[in-house]
Amino acid sequence: MSDIQEQIRELYAAAASRLVSQLFAITGDYAEAQDVVQDAFVRALARPGRFGQVEHPEAWLRTVALNIARSRHRRRMVFARLALSGQLDGGQRGAPGMSPDHVALVSALQRLPRPAREAVVLYHIADMTVADVAETLGCSVEAVKTRLVRARRALAVGLDDTADITTVRPGIVNKRGSLHA
Which of 33, 35, 40, 138 has the lowest tally of Cβ within 10 angstroms? Predict the structure, then answer.
């Protein structure tokens, strides 16, 4: 096994579940999140030379997985249009085995516009800085801050006060139970 393959294997052991969690919060589909993270690691293995030049491997994999999720989302939108036209029958999505609070949070995240949802997940769940989120999403720091503020307002309305989101991801809420920036 080459050094790069060993590095990817170690990174998979350390970061795959974290990346799946982040992509699940973005996609709302646990199986989809697993698939896109798996595809990101496959791309790393397929291009060991490129992966070896990456300064921040986990950030690179997150970006690749996010891009894969976006591409799949676009394809699903085409599929949905076909299904709505009566040409196809759409399937159901779900995430079995999740706590009710986790499901409530992901459901609330799904009601956000995709750019806001991506910013919230990368900032609060991936624990990235605003500048890193801006770089990952290819937008300005101000745009990320605006997305976060608007998303927090929407989530405050959308989440039931009884949901304990600290059990979903400890550390993303302050002592009063509000999402922090």
Answer: 138
Same domain, yes or no, for 28 and 78?
yes
SS3 string, 135-154, reads HHHCCCHHHHHHHHHHHHHH
Does the global pTM surpass 0.85? no
**Residue 91 belongs to a domain:** no
- Give the list of residues 6+ apart from residue 1 with CB closer than 8 angstroms, or none: 9
Q: Are 61 and 116 part of one and the same domain?
A: no
In the chain, the amino acid numbered 81 is: R
Which CATH number characterizes residue 114's domain? 1.10.10.10
Enclosing domain of residue 10? 3-84
Same domain, 67 and 124: no
Please give the radius of gyration of the chain, using alpha carbons only, rounded to the nearest integer: 17
| Number of structural domains the chain divides into | 2
